[in-house]
Design brief:
This protein is an alpha+beta fold. Helix content is 34%, strand content 25%. A five-stranded antiparallel sheet has the order 4-5-10-6-7. The protein has a four-stranded antiparallel sheet with strand order 11-12-13-14, with helices on both faces. Bound molecules: flavin-adenine dinucleotide (FAD).
Length: 291
């Protein structure tokens, strides 16, 4: 289908973009990579009066390591993130995730900010930011605020971002010592959206017990979510296969998949159990330095 009519602006600075979003609140929609929004426009599932294209806004696509955290610009593409060696060295989960998104064209255009702001339960980045207990920096003409990932994804395609805000940064903590992380995605064909995706991060203590755990799930509920019961069950436990199997079962207990073209709900629940255990196993072997 052909999209409905809309106005289009390409501001040259973030301040200008924020002014437009403030002045046209309720009418304007941000355009970043366009790889989620343009299909919606073509299907007329979104019909904004104005598109505010961020392409000419500089300074939003960097990846910086500070003493406190990693700061990934909201307009950093999947490809730019995939190719960042420093980030991948500290958080291998990032490369697992970025490398599995769509195809090269999608990775060249799609952005982490667009992916998180869009809040498609099938998008891969949200589960990762949830597992790592990251946060989102959002800016409006009135100022800036930082929102924890846990609490950010409110419903399908709905987040805590205000219509006048731009998601400017995704912040991830530094990995403590003896930490491993992994994203395992079950997909029908390479490059598909996930049938089930699991982001896992484990920090071990000196005795090999789990000091902290993070688990984020993709595509098995109305929003991406953290499997908090499974995380809690892992803390204090020796990192081994049996514990990971138990955690997978608990994570499935928190999932609410629906039957669709990816498969029946019961199949997805079985896959949550299995893929969670696999992601935890890989995270643990990375924490031990054996993967
Ligand atoms: C063929 C295909 C395969 C794909 N496969 C996958 C996959 O395997 N895994 C996966 O995770 N994704 C996949 N995607 C989605 C892709 O990663 C999108 O690029 C991404 O979800 C959205 O990013 P974008 O920059 O294109 O956002 P846009 O499409 O430009 O915007 C999406 C939404 O977010 C809002 N938005 C965008 N940027 C910001 C911002 N900085 N601040 C506030 N709001 C903002 C827009 O207003 C819009 O509502 C696929 C897409 C296609 C077309």
């Amino acid at each position: 289908m052909i999209p409905g009519q809309f106005e289009y602006v390409r501001p040259g600075s973030l301040d200008e973009a924020l002014r437009i979003l403030r002045d046209r609140e309720g009418e304007a929609k941000i355009l970043s990579g366009g790889y989620s929004l343009l299909p919606l426009l073509k299907l007329r599932l979104a019909q904004p009066a104005l598109l505010v294209d961020l392409q000419a806004v500089g300074g939003l696509d960097g990846i910086a390591r500070t003493d406190d955290d990693w700061r990934i610009g909201g307009r950093a593409t999947h490809r730019r993130i995939l190719e960042h060696d420093g980030l991948a060295a500290e958080w291998p989960i990032i490369r697992d995730t970025a490398g599995g998104i769509g195809d090269p064209q999608v990775r060249n255009w799609g952005t982490i900010g667009g992916s998180c702001a869009h809040a498609d339960p099938g998008s891969d980045w949200p589960a990762v930011v949830l597992a790592l207990r990251g946060s989102f920096t959002c800016r409006s003409a009135g100022g800036e605020r930082t929102l924890a990932a846990r609490g950010f994804f409110l419903d399908t395609f709905q987040t805590a971002i205000d219509a006048t805000e731009v998601l400017t940064e995704v912040r991830l903590p530094h990995a403590p010592g003896r930490t491993g992380s992994a994203y395992v995605k079950l997909e029908r064909r390479a490059g598909d959206f996930a049938t089930v995706g699991v982001a896992a991060v484990l920090t071990l203590d000196d005795s090999g017990r789990i000091a902290s755990a993070g688990i984020g799930l993709t595509a098995v509920a109305e929003t991406p979510f953290a499997a908090t019961d499974a995380e809690a069950a892992l803390v204090g436990v020796v990192a081994h296969d049996e514990a990971f199997g138990v955690a997978g079962g608990i994570a499935a207990g928190q999932a609410r998949p629906t039957s669709d073209s990816h498969g029946p709900a019961e199949y997805k629940l079985a896959m949550v159990r299995e893929i969670t255990a696999r992601a935890l196993r890989l995270a643990a072997s990375r924490a031990h330095g054996t993967a």
